[in-house]
Design brief:
homodimer, alpha+beta, 3-stranded antiparallel beta sheet, 11 strands
């Protein structure tokens, strides 16, 4: 276990006018079922996975029987793993979900923020309507949390560290990462977020990648979540976002998920591989370039696809559409 | 002259739940009239100053006689050095300025983007009105550019690298930095941005800091611009922004200016000091913490002022107002 700024590798470069303007350091690990198969930077770096671990946080939703007890569909499971745009699609689905549970928006504990989706944002502003907790990018995860909480007949304060749901998430986290959690913090959505090594996170993603339905409770839950995410890219993030566009480009075969502070993970079921990476500075232009590069390297993403180029080596343009520079992976990163 | 990622120092740390989540590297230099008096990281790092050099780009506005020919006030000069919010205050002033020149918004070459100011943004959305070039954070600089262009009877494409205005800016840049420019790129507002060493930028800021009116054309222009910025903090950025709040906290005695990709500069006339810094990754939470720390260290900013604390060591809160962590200067940075 190391500090996040120890042993980092050059990950991405920002160029302007043919000159280097900024650079990003990071760590990246690829695991298969046996362990680390590739690394850049320091695989022992301790990180907060932030939203990249939502599929781990969703395991109790299936494993407690809560999801099936209320008949959740794969779309609900995808939304439970989402950092969504707060578009009408996401807000409407989360709202119907908790209404079907007999609950309402005030039962959520994620807080409200202006939606990233422009149409929904503008609709709110035109109507002088405040954003609600359903607009929070984590409202799908929290709808899942409420589903488990209700199923367990547990207390309403489901984001408390000693709540049965969070205890179940902590246990699942330690099982799938193969590590004792290194600590915890409060996430942007108020849920506990458990710290882990980057290798632990990649190992967890490899567990998801090698899990198959019918191989036991844990493996079935993992396989269902991976399939749900990969099959519903529009629910996991939203139009224009890296997760959505790259998953679409991979044709439903791979699940990927971003997290705040420059985290990105990928689950590659056909290859049995899990990927985890983080930029030391928390920047996402670099984490998006790096995950695109690693997915191309793994043979699951077409380097020539527009969604790939938009992240891997994007030309930077200014407000008048004039080319100003480009983002590149650092030489030697891959 | 070195790459921006060579020899950087630990600048700022992002903590969550008592654990380190992300870190930022950077370079910082303080110069007086004789040269470097303090440094962190690599003073020879080559950077793009971006918007931090707007007071250099405004020198021809005064030195050609253009500003006085049309009776520009200190407020106009402050706006010419601004990266403003696009609030009604800024948009209205820039619009009247170019109208008084007999020009209109279509003569600008900065491009349009949604204003950062919430009230003005919401007003546009409610009225289904598109943002115009006056909303661009650089519209004050470009109003100054148009003023010079008209005064010189030069061509309308004033952001071209071989336009007389840009040639004058390049010459002024080399004179005040004491360096041949290291290259150039196109900025977000389409103007050329000249690359320089961080020491060159700090040396230029020290020149501004030691300049006094009546000591010649260059020194008079510098002193007027510094005084204009320091006296009109609301015009240089806007409500809630670091430049505005920190300049207000310093009572009009110091001019500071941010630039994209984590640049920050300060001009301290009473001390005769110039400060320049840049984060390697381009992050601004770290550049804001660092400039606040250096201004406190220089004795011009009160460490206990709320505007200082908001940048120097801010507690991070989430959407429900729950404390999640803090930003700190890296140990040993100051």
């Amino acid at each position: 276990m190391s500090r996040v700024d120890q042993g980092a590798a050059a990950m991405a470069e920002i160029w302007r006018g043919g000159m280097l303007e900024s650079t990003h350091l990071g760590h990246a690990v690829i695991c298969d079922a046996q362990g680390v198969v590739w690394q850049a930077g320091n695989p022992d770096a301790v990180i907060f996975p932030r939203s990249s671990c939502k599929m781990i946080q969703a395991l109790p939703l299936i494993e407690t029987g809560a999801a099936d007890a209320v008949g959740l569909t794969p779309a609900h499971l995808a939304l439970s793993c989402a950092s969504h745009q707060g578009a009408a699609l996401h807000v409407g689905m989360a709202g119907r979900w908790i209404a079907d549970l007999g609950l309402d928006e005030s039962d959520l504990r994620c807080g409200a923020h202006e939606p990233y989706d422009r149409d929904e944002r503008d609709r709110l502003i035109r109507g002088a309507e405040a954003p609600c907790q359903l607009h929070n990018n984590c409202s799908g995860k929290h709808s899942g949390f409420l589903t488990v909480t209700r199923h367990l007949k547990a207390g309403s304060e489901y984001v408390e560290i000693d709540h049965p749901l969070q205890k179940a998430i902590r246990a699942a986290t330690e099982e799938v990462t193969g590590e004792t959690v290194a600590g915890w913090g409060v996430d942007g959505c108020s849920a506990p977020n458990f710290a882990m090594s980057l290798t632990g996170l990649a190992r967890a993603m490899a567990s998801f990648a090698t899990a198959r339905e019918g191989q036991g409770r844990r493996a079935s839950a993992m396989a269902r979540l991976t399939q749900a995410m990969a099959s519903h890219p529009e629910l996991v993030a939203g139009e224009g976002r890296a997760c959505t566009e790259l998953m679409r480009a991979m044709g439903g075969k791979v699940a990927i998920k971003t997290g705040a502070e420059g985290v990105f993970v990928a689950i590659l079921p056909e290859q049995g591989l899990g990927i985890a990476l983080k930029t030391v500075d928390g920047n996402s232009r670099a984490s998006e370039a790096a995950i695109a590069g690693l997915l191309v390297r793994a043979g699951v993403l077409d380097a020539a696809h527009p969604a790939t180029q938009k992240r891997l080596n994007p030309v930077q343009k200014n407000w008048r559409g004039v080319e100003t520079g480009e983002i590149r992976l650092a030489p030697g990163f891959l």
